[in-house]
Amino acid sequence: xxxxxxxxxVMEEFYSLQGEGYHTGEAAYFVRVAGCDVGCHFCxxxxxWDASVHNPTPINDILERxxxxxxxxxxxxxxxxxxxxxxxxxxxxxxxxIRAFLETSGSEKLTGEWDWICVSPKRNxxxxxEFFPKADELKMIICSKEDFQWAEENxxxxxxxxxxxxxxxxxxxxxxxxxxxxxxxxxxxxxISLQSHKYMNIP
Length: 203
Ligand code: SF4
Hints:
This protein has 203 residues and is of the alpha/beta class. It has helices at 59-67, 87-95, 146-155, 173-186, 196-200; strands spanning 7-17, 27-33, 56-58, 73-77, 99-104, 116-119, 137-142, 163-168, 190-192.
């Protein structure tokens, strides 16, 4: 599947506010790339899994749409974007002074020059070691009490000054939120990340 290409199977593009992590609240253009075989039970974009139902979109067309917005932040998410080679896309963004932010599970080979890398590890898809020194942000999704221990085990791998976030999985967020708050009070290296776009009713 991986090859140097000038188009990507884009599921959707939209201009909104980043809802999660360090850049929460900033305007950004989102590019959701289709294709993912990680199979998380809590995935809220299962319609992104099958790349074959989404047409290849030329990266020049995406760039044109980005440049029509006032933001210079682009969030590439998925699906799993690293199923594809992002060298050309990132180079085009950089040439136009656009900051490129990546959201990934870290399970596929890293390509492209990114201004910000957010890795959100998934239990059934180990993070590749090349992400450990490069991630700016580690986002652990908390679905159950057992996930705190797993979050700790992941955090020791990341060597760059990497921001550490615990984010409640949306469907159990009411139940997990008090546990996360209590956990961070005892382990303040972590911060909480909320899917604030869902509270704001924006994409
Ligand atoms: Fe969904 Fe992301 Fe998990 Fe893929 S890695 S199944 S896109 S949550």
